[in-house]
Write a structure and sequence with these properties.
By secondary structure, the protein is α+β, with helices and mostly antiparallel strands. It contains 11 helices and 20 strands. The strands form 4 sheets. Strands 1, 2, 7, 8, 9, 10 and 20 form a 7-stranded mixed β-sheet that branches. Strand 8 and strand 9 form a beta hairpin. Helix 1 packs parallel to helix 4 and helix 7 packs antiparallel against helix 8. The two termini are 20 Å apart. The relative contact order is 0.20.
Length: 395
């Protein structure tokens, strides 16, 4: 059988691609192994950076969606609202698109059950296989994809394998190096503390809550505030605890509760539900875009190596530009947390020169690997928006 479209990946970008394609298309989703495995930023295994398997890292996505617009990933308010309404209709009605707000849904988008519903709803026009795509090649009919369980042919191929796995798939398939030696990320830096009178505004819809935030003029740093309670009242104590605890991959509140950290639990209750917001002091965190934050090694082994000087320069700049008067600045300025927003792992110019991703090409990459500048805001829904837009334009 020759499919109209083959999608490699089954995470958030893959979901958005399938949603954007016409319902009349015959689509094959090569979703990756079941079960998969997490990859981590370092050997400690405390912070995941990818999930090699069905659902992608979307199985652990915490769901924050920025309402701000930017010139590349989310340039159009109508499109952002339209895609938001597909998953969160009440939030789309309440959203102030373009405002400095973050939407936190009560239930994050989970790609696996949503893809299962699409398979059922489209009645044989969408097929999902839990297999690993190993290579693709251009053929007369379009594109041929080798997998761990056979070969499949489609007229068009959409690659959404993720920022760490897409480069190795491209290099292997094209027979040339298009993956980069560095990869970009967000990092979460601790700015310090400020009087609780600066607490952000929180408003609710049936789908979740909207929380105000601050973005610098160059859209390179996103500032958020969280109540500083218990041990977190001490300057730097919170970031030290966060660094020691890491970022759990699921069930965050229950895991934090078991870890017996009252400060972390308070932050989690506020971040997820908007509860316990009142506090005499608030901690200031800056989510900072860091181009080329890590050296990247792909192939049989995928390895990230942080570039501390590069990361420190960005977090220092964000700290110095704090928008809050009366900030008590951190004394541990070297500390930061990985942002789980890896991107720009593929040389886009080299990729297009090879015939991939250029207009009209039967092979399109729709994940974060091809995004050079991702901005400072949470990127997952924005990448979904870009993938959805490209799939719609293919019809």
């Amino acid at each position: 059988m020759i499919y109209d479209d083959i999608v490699i990946g089954s995470g958030l970008s893959a979901l958005a691609t399938v949603v954007g394609l016409p319902a009349s298309r015959n689509i094959l989703i090569l979703g990756g192994p079941r079960p998969g495995r997490f990859l981590h930023y370092d050997a400690s295994g405390s912070v995941p950076c990818a999930y090699h398997g069905e659902g992608g890292l979307g199985i652990a996505w915490h769901g924050v969606i920025p309402m701000m617009l930017d010139s590349s990933l989310a340039p159009d308010a109508t499109e952002l609202k339209q895609l938001l309404s597909r998953f969160y209709p009440a939030a789309a009605e309440a959203a102030d698109i373009g405002a400095a707000e973050l939407f936190v849904p009560w239930r994050p988008i989970r790609p696996t059950p949503l893809l299962e519903r699409l398979v059922a709803r489209r009645r044989g026009r969408v097929t999902r296989l839990p297999v690993l795509a190993t290579r693709f090649s251009l053929v007369a009919a379009g594109v041929e994809v080798d997998t761990s369980a056979g070969t499949h042919t489609g007229r068009r191929l959409w690659i959404a394998a993720g920022a760490l796995h897409t480069p190795e798939l491209l290099d292997r398939s094209l027979g040339q190096r298009v993956g980069r030696d560095t990869i970009s990320d967000h990092v979460l830096g601790y700015v310090g503390q400020v009087d609780g009178a600066n607490a952000p505004q929180v408003r609710y819809s049936r789908d979740g809550m909207f929380v105000s935030c601050h973005v610098d003029a160059g859209q390179s740093a996103l500032y958020t505030l969280r109540p500083a309670r218990f041990g977190f009242r001490q300057l730097d104590y919170g970031i030290e605890q966060r660094a020691a605890f890491g970022l759990p991959t699921g069930g965050a509140i229950s895991k934090i509760a078991r870890a017996m950290s009252a400060g972390l639990l308070t932050e989690a209750m506020y971040t997820r539900l908007g509860l316990l917001a009142a506090a005499p002091r608030h901690s200031i965190y800056a989510q900072v875009e860091v181009p080329e934050a890590y050296s990247l090694r792909t192939g049989t082994i995928i390895e990230l190596q942080p570039r501390p000087v590069t990361i420190r320069a960005r977090t220092d700049a964000a700290r110095a530009a704090s928008p809050f008067a009366g900030t008590a600045f951190s004394r541990r300025s070297e500390m930061y947390l990985p942002g789980i927003h890896l991107h720009h792992s593929v040389d886009v110019a080299a990729l297009e020169a090879s015939g991939v991703n250029s207009p009209g090409s039967p092979v399109q990459v729709v994940d974060a690997s091809i995004v050079p500048r991702i901005g400072c805001a949470h990127h997952s829904f924005r990448i979904m928006l870009a993938a959805w837009r490209r799939a719609r334009e293919s019809s």
